[in-house]
Amino acid sequence: MTDLDETDRRILELLAADARRPYSDIADDVGLSAPAVSDRVANLRESGVVKRFTVDVDRSQLRGGTPVLVEVTPEPGSTDGARDALAAADEVEHVFVTADGDVVVSARVPAEDVREWVADTVDLDGVRAYDVTLLSESSWRPSVGAEFALACDECGNTVTSEGETATIGGERHHFCCGSCLARFEERYERLDADA
Fold first, then answer.
1. Whether residue 178 is found in the same domain as residue 124
2. Are residues 1 and 18 in the same domain?
3. Which helix (H) or strand (E) holds 173?
4. Which PANTHER family does the UniProt record give (predicted)?
5. For the chain, what is the domain count?
6. Which of 75, 124, 132, 195 is the most buried (most CB within 10 A)?
7. What is the span of the domain harbouring residue 31?
C-alpha cells in the first residue's frame, strides 16, 4: 500500500473544500503541473481514497420543514433494513450507523409530522425505540486531517504502510495484513463460484 504524501493530503483538502476546483488552481497551490495533479487524483480514485465527487446541497433552500436528528434502535438483525429505508427517504441527508447498530439520520421534515414520517419510513415492528431531536443549526465540514488512514476491507482495522492492496473483481481493495487479504479473496471466490 502506498502512503499518502503531503502533496496528496493537500490535494484532498482542496478537493474537500471545492470538488470542482480546477486542476490548474490545485497545481498552483501544490507546486505541480495540472497534468501531474490529474494523475495524482486518478491514483487517489484508483486506490479507493477518493470514491466520488459530490455536491453539498443546502436543503433548507430547496425544501421547507424542520431539521431533525432521528435515532432508531432496531431490533437485532434489523439494522440493515432500517438503514436502507431511511437512506432511501428524500428527506434524509446523512445516515450514520453506530457501533451498537443504531441508525442516526439528519433529515428535514415537517415539524408537525415527524413521528408520522418515522412511522411511514421505517417498519416500526423492527424497531425497539426511536428518538427525534429538533436541530437549531447544523454544518458540514469535510476535512483531511493528519490522522487520515484507510480501513481494511476485511476487518476494518487501520491499513498502515505495511498493509496490502489488491484488485479483486475489478475493484481495488486495501487490507491491513496478508491474512485479511487471503480471507477476503477466499470469500470472494466462494461467492463468485456460487453466482
1. no
2. yes
3. strand 171-175
4. HTH-TYPE TRANSCRIPTIONAL REGULATOR LYSM, TRANSCRIPTIONAL REGULATOR, ASNC FAMILY
5. 3
6. 132
7. 1-54
